[in-house]
Amino acid sequence: MTDGDPAPKRTTQNQSASDDTRPGAKPEKAAKDVVAKDSDVAKKGSESAKAFPSSTDAKPQKPEANPLAAKRPQRPVARPAGMRRRHWGLVLSFLLLVAVPLTATGFYLWSIAKDQYGSVAGFTVRSDEGSSASELLGGLAQLTGTSSSADGDILYEFILSQALVRSVDEQLDLRGHYSAHWEDDPVFALWPDSSIEALEWYWGRIVQVSFDQGTGLVELRILAFSPEMAQDIAQTIVSESQEMINALNSQAREDGMRYAVQDLETAVEQLKAARQALTDFRTRTQIVDPATDIQGRLGVMNNLQQQLAEALIELDLLASNTGNANDPRALQAATRVDVIQNRIEQERTSFATGNGDNGTLSENYPALIAEFEGLTVDREYAEESYRATLTALTVTRAQSARQSRYLALYIQPTLAETSEFPRRYSIFGFAALFLLLSWAVLALIYYSVRDRG
């Protein structure tokens, strides 16, 4: 038999069956008992086969249920993922806020917007850097005010000013050119019958100015619906800028000449006053030059000192030779010594008091000398100022004869051959970025408010 476990049981049952068919038992009853026992054995064998399956017929058994797990609450099973109402709203908002405006922008840029052409021009303000012979007399050219450090800033503001817009419009009819495409391209065109303020605002869109304060270079880019118009506008701006620089030169020359003449007149008046004061001093003191007068007085003093020494020597010789004090020659020599000493004393007194023999001077002589020196210094200063202002006037007159500042073009106004404006790809990219970010922010705000609610 192939089944190992039921075989012994069946053998035992057969033995009991053979025991029951002992002599004297009824054959029919014994047969029925044998059949009943065989059926019981078959049932038990099937039950044992179910309880102890063989290795070939074995099946995985389910784990026994955990009593603790049975006590946990059973969560509901998640439904299959699908589109909800809010999801459809998010898609609809994307279509309305991003896809539709972006499609309209692209359609307008590539189908409706008119081509524009650009013209480029570059220039700078240059100053006359040459030095003339008159400027070498002391660097007085700076007094004329020819510095051009702020000319670039002035020119930058002038290009964007309303005065230039009005002048260019009168020459080239800006309103007529830029409003001709208003019905076809209302975004990039100028509306008809616009005011000067509106034209000035539109001027900031079609004229791009870049100014480098370090180098003083100014570069223009002008946009127009035709390349010829763009070039004409650029040339007109350059011409108007040159005229403005010439006006600045003229104003600077006029101011420099006026200031130089005023300074010269003031210097002349100061020189006249200084010389008149010195003349009044000489008339009052009757001294032309105190230094020369002092030299003369010192010469007199030296002469008197020499004569006094000689008289004393003569007096000593007479006293030693005659020995008589009443000798007329000795008395005369003594008188001569007294006279010389008195004269020396008077001369010294005149130095201190300023009084001569005639008594015409009543002022202190040292004070007179100090006053004369002060007047002399004033006259010398007035003379130097007069020379400086006269030189400045000469320099200003020389510079007025030539142009000290001029407009130097390093890029002539160009004539475009291909339309490069409007920048369609750049505008489309910025519009896509802006719309996408705006839609994302709004979506995040919606979900934030929904989660909090």
Overview of the molecule:
The protein is built from 13 helices and four strands. It is α+β, with helices and mostly antiparallel strands and 453 residues long. A hairpin with a 4-residue loop joins strand 2 (207-212) and strand 3 (217-224). A four-stranded antiparallel sheet has the order 2-3-1-4. Helix 4 runs antiparallel to helix 13 and helix 6 packs across helix 9. The protein is 64% helix and 7% strand. The chain has helices at 6-20, 27-51, 67-71, 85-112, 151-159, 162-172, 174-178, 196-206, 227-285, 290-322, 328-353, 365-400, 424-452; strands at 117-127, 207-212, 217-224, 405-411.
Summary keywords:
4-stranded antiparallel sheet, 13 helices, elongated, 453 residues, disordered N terminus, alpha+beta
Structure summary:
The protein has 453 residues and is α+β, with helices and mostly antiparallel strands. It is built from 13 helices and four strands.
The biggest beta sheet reads:
4 strands, antiparallel
State the shape. elongated
Average pLDDT for all residues = 79
Number of strands: 4
Percent of residues in β-strands: 5-15%
| Gap from first CA to last CA | 76 Å
Q: From the helix content, strand content and strand pairing, which structural class follows?
A: alpha+beta
The number of distinct helices, counting runs of at least 4 residues, comes to 13
SSE pattern, N- to C-terminal: HHHHEHHHHEEHHHHEH
Radius of gyration: 64 Å
What strand line-up does the widest sheet have?
2-3-1-4
Measured as a percent range, the helix fraction is 55-70%
The parts where pLDDT drops under 50 for at least 5 residues are: 1-31, 48-60, 130-149, 358-362
